[in-house]
Amino acid sequence: MMEKVNISEKFSLFNEYWSPKIVGEVNDTHVKLAKLKGEFDWHHHEHEDEMFLVIKGKLLLKLRDQDIWLEEGEFFIVPKGVEHLPVAEKEVHVLFIEPKTTLNTGNQITERTVQNLPTI
Amino acid sequence: MMEKVNISEKFSLFNEYWSPKIVGEVNDTHVKLAKLKGEFDWHHHEHEDEMFLVIKGKLLLKLRDQDIWLEEGEFFIVPKGVEHLPVAEKEVHVLFIEPKTTLNTGNQITERTVQNLPTI
């Protein structure tokens, strides 16, 4: 990919929630965008750390022992093995940095699992 | 690291140019911040892709065959092996995503090489 990426522009290309899109790769790592709204499912990633960077809106990232509120320009890296639950009262735009092996629903396959992520 | 990171707050902690700071790790990948001003040196990274995300200001990323202008909220991933030259007419704040093995001056060791990056 030899083109620059404008993050807002990419977000304007889709409307589904909880459906990550790939917008870049850096060696073994993917850069993904997703729109979140509502509550996801508790899960963890056995082997992957997962970075949530809020681009727009306000995200509540619940851990079992801690509530983390992320606003625009803030990020949190959920370490591998740590259970988490993203909650978006209103629509939130998130940029993810995570290993290419990362599945959105982590340790469980549910109806919300997205297996083959599109690149946009 | 179980604390969230506010990117602007981290940028307020240092003033040097061309001196990347580590602000997070995602498996084998580092998240770094740097303030850039002026012109760097042409270099490439033999094995590492390097993502430049502009947080503040406007960055000119010169490749041998292309000039890429990056504004706030835009990123470019320089593929491994591709020569590049960052140029910042005015101060620019950049977030980098790159493998932990990445050296700022790439294939050459110069007086601008930073070997042991601090975590802030």
Automatic annotation (TrEMBL), chains A, B:
Residues 37-97 form the Cupin type-2 domain. SUPFAM superfamilies: RmlC-like cupins. This is Cupin domain-containing protein. Pfam families: Cupin_2 (PF07883). It comes from the Bacteria.
